[in-house]
Amino acid sequence: MDTTDDKVLPLSVQSLYTDGSFHTATDSSPSSMASAWLALDDDGLILESSSLQIPSCFPSALRSEIYAIVLGLNALSHGSSISVYTDCSQLISLWKRFVDVPFSPKLLREHNHLLWLSIRQLIKDRKLIVNLIKVPAHGDDFYNVQVDSLAKASHLSSQPTVSPLAFCHVPCFLTFNSLPIDMNIRHFLRSIADACALLSFCSMARFTALGSPSLFDWAGIYFCLSQIKGFASHKNGRPEFWIFRIKLLLDMLPTLTTLQQRKPYLYSPDWLCPQCNSAPEDLNHLWTCPYILPELNPCSTHRSEVVKFRDSCLSSFLSLKPLDSNFHVAFSALDCWNYETPSSSYLWLTRGLLPAHLTNFLKQYFPLSVIYKTISTLLNDFQIELYGEIWLCRNILFHAWEESQGISAASKLRGPSSNPPFTAISSHIHNSSLASVSQDSWISWISSSIIRGGSWISHLDFLRRLTVQPLRISFW
Ligand SMILES: [Zn+2]
Questions:
Q1: Where is the RNase H type-1 domain (predicted)?
Q2: From ligand 1's centre to the CA of 423, what distance in Å?
């Protein structure tokens, strides 16, 4: 596997100093894990040392510490009895839970369980006696300082030369795309199901017809949808509002255009918006219809609600941290607030399709979790207003108009009186300029989350693709 495997330390080794080092990812460089150990005899003489940059896989500081022990134990002779010195107290407390006890299948639910199982297997196979001892992290222990600098120095070495599967001393494990799954398997499989579901969602023709999937912030849209808990439980009251939100997102609200496609035998394809009679009544027309009644002025209501939404976003973000006037000016100038034209992204935002440029702008100032939490709450408030002030009012007028056309609730249920071929009408709407979404994108999202850490949802990427191999889930 590796040169470290060839080293076999003499039985005279009395103690091992181990240390891990972890560099978190920055904008310019990925995260990096490195581990080192020193082997000493009972005179305190350093017999051997080793350091290694660890292949990035579920990267964390703790993992680099556990790796240091795996590598150290891996170099010991059969029957060695040693003290392991570490400055990581978390490592010692986990050791007590996972190593100093009989095996329990519950271990398989834990992060880094493959490393812990490898330690158990090494101790068993080589009949090792291991005692962990805590040393002060920033004390003046000479050997600890030395092993610390050894670990830190190996970040500078070239890319890891060992496979993420090296040092895996376990009888059986699962891999994904040749990467070991060193986390709760049930959670991992859940993340695959979620990633596939999101991929199917954003590949829907109704969305790809609007443009490239990279125009939208799917992670943000996913977050907003996940907030619709009331939809599943119906405990929050208002299920009809949640249905409105979802139909709005999917462009499935029963506008006249939709009804003309679904029931052309009742709604003549020639009919225009019953209010203004100047344009087809599709989803976007709900907000741009120029017709003005005392109780309904959709265009101006929509504009003022968007302005309210924009200003609430601004004041929420400004309350989180002081920002100069440049933020204010640049935020207000974003294309998604452009109601004059109106811009496409303005109409998308109304539907709940968060435009990517909105998040990308805010990301310069705030963490994504803060952005999503703030926007999803305010978007919900905004859509409540659209529901009450525009959609419900429009429905009252629309039903009155339907009655005037002789379209009753009973006739809607009846279906066509004859069977003319209606099928051709609805199929042509979404077939132009389909942006392609690669249907194996989920593999690169998941692989990327294993390699770089974090949830798969933070690795959505429709433009830059990882080079991925076909999926392999294997046992051995
Ligand atoms: Zn109209």
A1: 10-156
A2: 27
d(CA 279, ligand 1 centre) in Å? 6
Range of the domain at 134: 3-171
Distance CA 115, CA 77 (A): 19
The rounded Å distance from CA 265 to ligand 1 centre is: 22
pLDDT over threshold 90, residue 168: no
β-sheet bridge partners, residue 216: 355
Q: Are residues 65 and 79 in the same domain?
A: yes
Tens digit of pLDDT for each residue in 115-161?
A: 999 999 999 999 999 999 999 887 788 999 999 999 999 887 767 77
Per-residue pLDDT tens over the stretch 283-341: 999 999 988 877 778 999 999 999 999 999 999 999 999 998 899 999 999 999 999 98
Give 217's Cβ-side CA count (13 Å radius): 25
User: Is residue 453 predicted with pLDDT exceeding 50?
Assistant: yes
CA–CA distance, 389 with 384 (Å, rounded to integer) = 8
The total domain count for the chain is: 3
Residue at 427: amino acid letter: S
CA distance 120 to 70: 10
| Cα–ligand 1 centroid distance for 15 (angstroms) | 82
Residue given tokens 């017999």 in the structure block: 47
Residue 430 lies in a domain: no
* 210 is a domain residue: no
In angstroms, what is the span from residue 172 Cα to ligand 1's centroid? Answer: 65
Residues 38 and 99 in one domain: yes
161 and 180 together in one domain: no
Global confidence as pTM: 0.83
